[in-house]
Design goal:
Radius of gyration: 19 Å
Structural class: alpha+beta
Number of helices: 5
Shape: globular
Distance between the termini: 41 Å
């Protein structure tokens, strides 16, 4: 990752391109972001209930950019492959497979309070459980 994409300096690079008329240089932040192979483009969610923990009761795919951004916001440092020495004694109720533009996946398990990519546990941002309830309800209203 270069300094431009790391710190979101696309407007500055665009200004440099404009001021010095560098050919082929006038790309936008959206174009840079769309070209990022690690960009998350969708999420498949399976939600399990205590009575039927062997299979998923709710399945949904999140592709709407706003809903996807909101879902991602609950998992600080998602996809950074961080490792923690601690792992809690919680039972995953939700499995999420975030799909990247390059076709790779980031798999997350969560109980609504804690989450893991399989290398330790992390605190989810507040409100994940309620948001998942809303997301499932919205999906049920929209589904045929």
């Amino acid at each position: 990752m270069n300094i431009v994409s790391r710190f979101g300096l696309y407007p500055i690079s665009g200004l440099v391109c404009l001021l010095f008329a560098v050919p082929g240089c006038a790309t936008t932040h959206a174009e840079h972001e769309a070209a990022d192979p690690h960009r998350i483009i969708s999420a498949h969610v399976d939600r399990y209930h205590a009575e039927t923990s062997n299979h998923s009761d709710d399945h949904l795919d999140v592709t709407d950019p706003e809903e996807l951004a909101k879902l991602i916001s609950f998992f600080p440092e998602l996809g950074q492959e961080k490792v923690a020495s601690s792992s809690g004694e919680w039972v995953a109720q939700i499995a999420i497979a975030f799909k990247r533009a390059d076709g790779s996946h980031i798999k997350v398990a969560t109980d609504g309070r804690w989450w893991s990519e399989g290398h330790g546990d992390w605190r989810a941002n507040r409100g994940l459980g309620g948001y998942m309830d809303q997301l499932v309800a919205l999906h049920e209203r929209v589904a045929p």
